[in-house]
Amino acid sequence: MSMGPGQSKILRLAAEREMVRLIPFTEKDIAQVLQWITSPELLIQWAGPQLFTYPLNGEQLHAYLQFGQGEHPQAKIFKIVNERNDTMGHIELGAINQENATATICRVFVDSRYRNKGICVEAVQQVLAIGFRELGLHRIDLRVFGFNTAAIRCYERAAMVSEGLLRKTQRVGGQYWDSMIMAILREEWEERESNGSRASRLDTPPCGRGGKPTV
Q1: pTM score > 0.90 for this model?
Q2: Which of 28, 40, 75, 170 could bridge across to 54 with cysteines, CB 3.0–4.6 Å?
Q3: Which residues pair with 81 in a beta bridge?
Q4: Domains in the chain, number
Q5: What is the CATH number of the domain that holds 165?
């Protein structure tokens, strides 16, 4: 029996999927980030306006690594790799507040060679599991620029909920960018996990440059 075009597409996408793992981001990974961030606009889109200045350099990223150090780090910083240990992207669980049991997903980037394969969704889901299961957090949020529809779809597939649009919050060049707040609560994540309804990674649009840190 022959397959229809829809079934063929699903099988093709499944075959193209990459296995996603998160491992700690280290000094050895700095050069890769410097290759990714090639313009002031892209730097703000990836990291927001406060932490870095353009041109991004190794000194800034070495200082950034300190947020992940210590007994109670402010951030858990990861690179996204596949089963061959190829670096596919970057993601952070930042602004960790143990007293308030909250944190922020930020500095999300997927290399252009690995987009359209569901990597963003899987990376976000793994970060959510770390936050809720390992750190015992109550709420995880993020901000994403309103024009970044690919990233927004990624976060929606990971069950994050839009909580509102902040209009024209960031001036970039001669224009202003809107920011969207998205979040998920522990009880929502637990219900999703108990139902076994992890978002499908099939047909996921590209999602690099998503999380503006405070993002």
Answers
A1: no
A2: 40
A3: 21, 87
A4: 1
A5: 3.40.630.30
